[in-house]
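S.,

Sequence below, as promised.
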Amino acid sequence: MSGAGSSTEISLILLDAGVGIERSDYLAEIVGFVSSVAGAGYEPECPHPAHVPLKPKSGRMLATSSGMKAALGAVLLAAGALVLTGFDKVFEAAMVRAAPSWLVDLTTRF
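The prediction came back faster than expected:
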């Protein structure tokens, strides 16, 4: 089975068949999506209009996500160190003593 043609070929075929250019562009986008999912690596010429407002914020979002990953890594590393040293039990006992009795009852009842 041969692969799908380029979007230009599809547009020309649809125009020859009497289909409007809007439909051929839409079909080209569908072919692009299907081929990208299938691993053909087709990238549409212009991104979806809903994604355009995110472009200016992408740098800030990338920086924020990198910082959040580092913070999560530090929290997980600290939790692992507490477990390995046994201080997690000391921390847990201190939290239970500091918590109100209704909260302790609620969390240990079930």
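The chain has two domains: 7-46, 54-109.

Coffee later?
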